[in-house]
Design goal:
mainly alpha; Globin-like
């Protein structure tokens, strides 16, 4: 599973620091158990199928590769295409925040080291924010909304900021893998 820290002078990956597949599976299982049992996560639970076994496996397989372990997800399904796979579900700020709160609680209950939990929470936030695809009350116009119709969204951004060539620096995108 995981190799000893410091082997070859390399810093251990988050996957290794969590305890390899066993530690990551425990985290994912606790995440879905909380979602299933805690009334405060009912809105998040409603976005998932009745049986959570497939969701548990897919998140586990994805996080294995994302955290520096084996690429189980890519071997089964190819590139994750996270945004495209989440477009059918209405995800706004509330859903993002519920997902993050549930994962943060799972990290805490699985006794993940505080420094690692903080780093994971920051990375999860960037990715979860990128999954948003609907506007929540108070967000401004179409440019504040991540739209399924990317061409429409792109035109709105161009009107506001100019075409990509006219901008001085590109908008940052979350990394598909754990940042180094």
């Amino acid at each position: 599973m995981s190799s000893p820290a410091g082997q070859g002078g390399a810093e251990p990956t988050p996957f290794q620091r969590l305890g390899g597949e066993a530690g990551l599976r425990a985290l994912v299982d606790r995440f879905y158990d909380l979602m299933d049992l805690e009334p405060s996560y009912a809105r998040l639970r409603a976005l998932h199928p009745q049986a959570l076994a497939g969701s548990r496996d897919k998140l586990f397989w994805f996080l294995c590769g994302w955290m520096g372990g084996p690429d189980h997800y890519q071997q089964r399904f190819g590139h994750p295409m996270l945004r495209a796979r989440h477009l059918p579900y209405a995800i706004g700020r509330v859903e993002r925040d519920l997902w993050l709160a549930c994962m943060t609680q799972a990290l805490h209950e699985c006794q993940v080291a505080p420094a690692l939990a903080q780093r994971l929470a920051e990375s999860f936030h960037g990715t979860a924010d990128w999954m948003r695809n609907r506007r929540t009350a108070g967000e401004a116009g179409c440019c504040g909304l991540i739209r399924a119709d990317l061409a429409f969204s792109r035109r709105c951004r161009w009107r506001r900021r100019g075409p990509p060539a006219a901008r001085s620096k590109p908008r940052p995108r979350p990394a598909a893998r754990w940042p180094a």
